[in-house]
């Protein structure tokens, strides 16, 4: 009942976030139910059933990531709701639990819709092509779908609860954000990138294709070597971790020397938000690089294309985009006071829009560098 009262005060962004969470949870629940149906249709294929369950982990992690970023933005974007809960006597832990419960409730709704569709299709409605995916003709144990579907709201709820820091849960509790990056935040990803590039060069040396046993990749991506796969993984993680520092350095570069007001506003704004924009943009860039590399490989070998990984990739990419949008909305809300102060001081709106455009161009250039390097490492490892 409490969440229904909260829903009465939803705005369009809140309703959209809630519906997107429910939709993503429904898709993940459909993947889990498909793996269950396949396991019932093939009772002796335990290894294949485990592989299908492992295929459900990337979309489940994507939904948890989106839930975490969306929950992180609620206190910043809806301070009046947090103030009302505080006035009603809710403490920090209670507020975090309420935000996590709201996310979990959306996931429960999506999972129930997927389960309802699964049960309806099992009632002799689906055609022969879908029969193995639904486990038609085999009794459905009641505990199996409930146990599987409980993973979706549980994972998303825990991720949402852990993503809201105690300092952000109460109005006025926001602390000044750090703008710099420690030495370990730079040394570790730089080392990973160097190691990844070295492993890729080892894998691409003449005669390396006949060394060792090839690793057969899923989704019809052919095979690769251990060195190439390890090099891409190390390089991709390193480039993702370097996204935040690179954004901060780009902001400092914009404000270098004797900057114009346009460069100063753009550079200082990007430097201040680099720590918060880095993680979601890094995840989006990594996912987009992997998707584009896969599409490029499938275009060259169309007989290897697979529909299910394409759907999963679309869900992961959608969750990454939604997470970036939620973080941008949070940043915009936090900068609203600064923008209003600049306008009161007589700053031209044209100057503010120009700073936003310059900041966007700088971010796009940085992401093009990291994403292009990640895609190049992935393309070099496929053969």
Structure in words:
The chain has helices at 2-8, 12-41, 46-55, 57-77, 79-87, 92-122, 131-134, 143-163, 166-169, 183-203, 226-254, 261-300, 307-334, 336-344, 349-381; strands at residues 215-216, 223-224. The radius of gyration is 24 Å and the shape is flat. The longest helix has 40 residues, at 261-300. The protein contains 15 helices and 2 strands. It has a two-stranded antiparallel sheet with strand order 1-2.
Helix and strand layout, with pairings?
Layout: H1 2-8, H2 12-41, H3 46-55, H4 57-77, H5 79-87, H6 92-122, H7 131-134, H8 143-163, H9 166-169, H10 183-203, E1 215-216, E2 223-224, H11 226-254, H12 261-300, H13 307-334, H14 336-344, H15 349-381
Antiparallel strand pairs: 1-2
Helix pairs in contact: 2-3, 2-4, 2-6, 2-8, 2-13, 4-8, 4-13, 6-8, 10-11, 11-12, 11-15, 12-13, 12-15
What's the short story on this structure?
The chain is mainly alpha-helical and 383 residues long. It has helices spanning 2-8, 12-41, 46-55, 57-77, 79-87, 92-122, 131-134, 143-163, 166-169, 183-203, 226-254, 261-300, 307-334, 336-344, 349-381; strands at 215-216, 223-224.
Share of helical residues:
over 70%
Run of helices and strands: HHHHHHHHHHEEHHHHH
Structural class: mainly alpha
Silhouette: flat
Spans with pLDDT under 50 lasting ≥5 residues? none
Rg, alpha carbons: 24 Å
User: What distance lies between the first and last C-alpha atoms, to the nearest angstrom?
Assistant: 56 Å
Q: Please outline the major beta sheet.
A: 2 strands, antiparallel
The overall average pLDDT, rounded, is: 83
Number of strands: 2
Strand content: under 5%
Strand order of the largest sheet: 1-2
How many DSSP helices?
15
């Amino acid at each position: 009942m409490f969440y229904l009262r909260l829903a009465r005060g939803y705005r369009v962004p809140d309703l959209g976030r809630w519906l997107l969470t429910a939709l993503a949870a429904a898709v993940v629940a459909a993947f889990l139910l498909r793996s269950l149906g396949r396991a019932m249709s093939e009772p002796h294929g335990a290894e294949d059933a485990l592989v299908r369950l492992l295929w459900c982990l990337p979309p489940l992690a994507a939904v948890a990531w989106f839930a975490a970023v969306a929950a992180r933005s609620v206190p910043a974007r809806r301070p009046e709701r947090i103030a009302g809960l505080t006035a009603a006597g809710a403490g920090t832990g209670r507020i975090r639990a309420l935000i996590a419960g709201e996310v979990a409730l959306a996931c429960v709704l999506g999972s129930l819709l997927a389960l309802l569709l699964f049960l309806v299709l099992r009632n002799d409605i689906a055609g022969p092509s879908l029969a193995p995916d639904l486990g038609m003709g085999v009794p459905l144990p009641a505990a199996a779908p409930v146990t599987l579907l409980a993973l979706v709201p549980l994972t998303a709820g825990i991720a949402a609860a852990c993503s809201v820091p105690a300092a952000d849960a109460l109005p006025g509790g926001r602390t000044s954000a750090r703008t710099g990056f420690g030495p370990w935040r730079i040394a570790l990803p730089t080392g990973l990138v160097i190691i990844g590039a070295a492993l890729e060069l080892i894998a691409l040396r003449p005669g390396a294709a006949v060394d060792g046993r090839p690793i057969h990749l899923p989704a019809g991506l052919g095979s690769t070597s251990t060195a190439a796969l390890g090099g891409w993984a190390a390089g991709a993680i390193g480039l993702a971790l370097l996204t935040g520092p690179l954004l901060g350095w780009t902001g400092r570069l914009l404000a270098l020397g004797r900057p114009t007001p346009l460069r100063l506003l753009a550079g200082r704004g990007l430097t201040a938000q680099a720590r918060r924009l880095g993680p979601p943009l890094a995840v989006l860039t990594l996912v987009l690089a992997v998707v584009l590399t896969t599409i490029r490989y499938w275009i060259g070998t169309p007989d290897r294309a697979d529909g299910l990984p394409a759907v999963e990739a679309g869900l992961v990419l959608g969750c990454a985009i939604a997470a970036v949008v939620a973080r941008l909305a949070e940043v915009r809300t936090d900068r609203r006071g600064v923008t209003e102060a600049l306008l009161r001081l007589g700053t031209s709106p044209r100057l503010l829009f120009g700073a936003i455009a310059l900041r966007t161009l700088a971010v796009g250039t940085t992401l093009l560098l990291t994403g292009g390097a990640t895609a190049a490492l992935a393309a070099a490892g496929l053969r």
